Structure to design on (712 residues):
């Protein structure tokens, strides 16, 4: 009888310690989980901030400023645009890519799937090239 | 002496009999004690269990809100127009504040608030929490943290950021510091954008870390993102060209609206003056007003195509019918109706091309008021546009029964009724869509939209040809022409009401479409009170139209429909292999 009681006592104690241990683990893991979650949240917010930052660097206003002031680019007009039709069949490529009066330098290097191809645009302004007045 | 001879089980001290009631009394007392405990235990654990449980939790369980993100606003290509970012705000808890004067001087300098002001704000030690400065830059917050002043903390708040700035400010709107929409799409769609706070109940340890979740966690619901029909590129240069025109002509203000004819989407809607939505303080009403939809005006000559369209539909005239406009003056009911120059006998086409008031009056007076009212109503005048947006107005169109003949006459050239620029652009989809009027939307939609037929295709096409003539030599708006694309439209120049009459202040408009054979866009431009000597719609508004059409069609990938002499100046070098 005593032996059974001792065994039970030991079992109860083990169970109790195990419970304490589990509770401790559970809290420790929860804390870690919570940390990880707030870190995820922080990174998420950071990503959003960076996305906005990237957008800031790519707004039309900034692109236009950089293009005009630093790169000396000019606006594209239909006069300096070469429009290339999208080929319907592969053997038509060459024909389609050569509309009447198309500058010959374009011919071998036109990439067919493009719907429109810009020729020489944006044009770099240089001293020797005739000036185009963009309306 | 053996062990058995000693009696341990009896004692002479116990020989005397104790009264039995004493032990019974003790047992009864102990029993009573246990009973008391049982009752109390039952009381605590069964009857008043909730109360004690709650009281216990109040002492160690914390309630915590989980923030929800406000939805972002995108343009039609997925570019961010509005997004929330977390920014630090600095607060103090006055009751536990360290008031070291050296550190405080540094703090005041860092957050750019006078020291005196800081001291005043934190004077009251009963307060648990005061903001010192909301929404500071990240580096400032780091430096403040570096000062390590006890009682000063940093809390993350959400700030709305608008990368496109003033160009799209009126459409997107803005939010207040509590993140509630105040204007524009931010206000209209506030309910779907805001999302819902979540909450959880947790136990924290002495380091302030969450150690246990007590259940009842409510996940936050983030706000829904919103995709507008606006194209930020189209919007940007429409705004820039408008701004240039307003500044060049020293005008009071201006607006521009660009519509996609196939889908009914609003591609751009801009006004000048505008404001920077990132810091919306000290704003004036003039900056905040979304003129294109909230301001109504007398539309002037832009009404004439509707009168002619209706007359063609009713079989009253053909495009080649000759109308006698005489010497440019027509007396009627005590008023004189004038043309800008005498036109003599001109065809209906030329009435539109030359914008003859007398021609329009003579055509309109051949029709009953009810029919004119009918077409004005069908294209949306006098009614609030069915677009969810704050501040939309319907303009004024009186019931036809009250029209006097002189009013019918003036309405035919756009006086005596009022419309907004948005309504005007909408109405012109009638000609762009070959006689149909289409519903408009500010949300991305992309599907072709069904219209309601108002006039037949053939008559709408006739009017469109007339609109094209307006932009050709001999018309009122050759400046609306643009390289590579055929255009058509109608100028309008309206005297502004001043007091009880018309003064010498003007509004110039141009409403048109391109490419004229198969229109893809409708563009409406309004310039308010140009004061540099030019005030005709064909001079002030048509150039904005021209530039906007050029860029918009290029962005949309529309191939030019007119021959352009190539001006390629850069020679490509042969590729070397």
């Amino acid at each position: 009888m005593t032996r059974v009681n001792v065994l039970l006592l030991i079992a109860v104690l083990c169970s109790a310690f195990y419970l304490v241990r589990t509770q401790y683990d559970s809290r420790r893991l929860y804390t870690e989980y919570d940390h990880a979650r707030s870190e995820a949240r922080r990174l998420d917010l950071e990503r959003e901030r960076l996305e906005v930052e990237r957008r800031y660097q790519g707004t039309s206003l900034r692109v236009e400023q950089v293009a005009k002031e630093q790169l000396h680019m000019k606006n594209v007009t239909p006069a300096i645009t070469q429009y290339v039709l999208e080929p319907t069949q592969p053997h038509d490529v060459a024909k389609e890519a050569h509309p009447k009066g198309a500058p010959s330098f374009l011919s071998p290097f036109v990439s067919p799937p493009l719907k429109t191809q810009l020729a020489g645009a944006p044009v770099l302004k240089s001293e020797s090239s005739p000036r185009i007045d963009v309306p | 002496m053996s062990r058995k001879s000693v009696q341990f089980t009896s004692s002479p001290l116990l020989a005397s009999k104790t009264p039995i009631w004493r032990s019974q009394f003790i047992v009864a007392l102990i029993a009573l004690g246990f009973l008391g405990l049982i009752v109390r235990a039952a009381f605590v654990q069964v009857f008043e269990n909730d109360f004690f449980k709650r009281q216990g939790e109040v002492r160690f369980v914390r309630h915590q809100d989980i923030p929800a993100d406000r939805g972002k606003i995108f343009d039609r290509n997925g570019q961010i127009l509005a997004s929330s970012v977390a920014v630090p705000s600095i607060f103090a808890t006055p009751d536990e504040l360290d008031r070291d004067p050296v550190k405080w001087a540094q703090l005041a300098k860092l957050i750019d608030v006078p020291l005196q002001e800081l001291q005043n704000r934190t004077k009251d030690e009963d307060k648990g929490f005061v903001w010192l400065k909301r929404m500071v830059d990240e580096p400032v917050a780091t430096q403040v943290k570096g000062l390590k002043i006890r009682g000063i903390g940093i809390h993350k708040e959400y700030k709305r950021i608008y990368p496109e700035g003033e160009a799209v400010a009126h459409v997107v709107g803005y939010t207040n510091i509590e993140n509630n929409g105040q204007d524009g799409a931010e206000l209209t769609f506030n309910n779907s954008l805001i999302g819902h706070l979540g909450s959880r109940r947790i136990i924290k340890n002495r380091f302030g870390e969450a150690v246990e979740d007590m259940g009842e966690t409510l996940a936050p619901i983030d706000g829904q993102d919103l995709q507008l029909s606006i194209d930020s590129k189209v919007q940007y240069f429409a705004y820039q060209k408008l701004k240039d025109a307003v500044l060049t002509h020293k005008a009071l203000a201006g607006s521009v609206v660009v519509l996609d004819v196939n889908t009914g989407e609003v591609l751009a809607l801009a006004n000048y003056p505008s404001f920077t939505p990132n810091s919306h303080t000290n704003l004036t009403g003039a900056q905040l007003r979304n003129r294109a939809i909230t301001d109504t005006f007398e539309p002037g000559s832009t009404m004439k195509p509707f009168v002619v369209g209706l007359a063609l539909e009713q079989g009253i005239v053909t495009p080649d019918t000759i109308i006698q406009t005489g010497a440019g003056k027509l007396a009627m009911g005590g008023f004189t109706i004038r043309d800008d120059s005498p036109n003599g006998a001109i065809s209906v086409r030329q009435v539109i091309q030359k914008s003859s008031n007398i021609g329009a009056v003579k055509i309109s007076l051949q029709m009953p008021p009810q029919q004119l009212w009918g077409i004005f109503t069908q294209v949306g005048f006098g009614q609030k546009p069915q677009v969810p947006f704050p501040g939309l107005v319907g303009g004024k169109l009186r019931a036809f029964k009250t029209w006097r003949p002189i009013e019918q006459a003036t309405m035919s050239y756009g006086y005596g009724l009022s419309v907004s620029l948005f309504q005007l652009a909408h109405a012109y989809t009638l000609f762009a869509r070959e006689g149909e009027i289409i519903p408009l939307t500010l949300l991305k939609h992309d599907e072709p939209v069904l219209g309601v037929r108002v006039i037949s295709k053939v008559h709408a096409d006739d009017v469109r040809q007339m609109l094209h003539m307006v932009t050709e030599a001999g018309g009122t708006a050759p400046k609306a022409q643009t390289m590579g694309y055929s255009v058509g439209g109608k100028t309008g120049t309206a005297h502004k009401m001043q007091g009880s009459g018309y003064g010498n202040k003007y509004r110039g408009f141009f409403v048109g479409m391109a490419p004229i054979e198969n229109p893809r866009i409708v563009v409406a431009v309004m310039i308010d009170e140009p004061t540099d000597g030019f005030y005709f719609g064909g001079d002030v508004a048509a150039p904005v139209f021209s530039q906007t059409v050029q860029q918009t069609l290029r962005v949309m990938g529309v191939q030019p429909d007119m021959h352009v002499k190539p001006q390629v100046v850069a020679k490509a070098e042969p590729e070397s292999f």
Observations:
- The CA atoms of residues 45 and 52 of chain B lie 8 Å apart.
- Chain B has a mean pLDDT of 88.
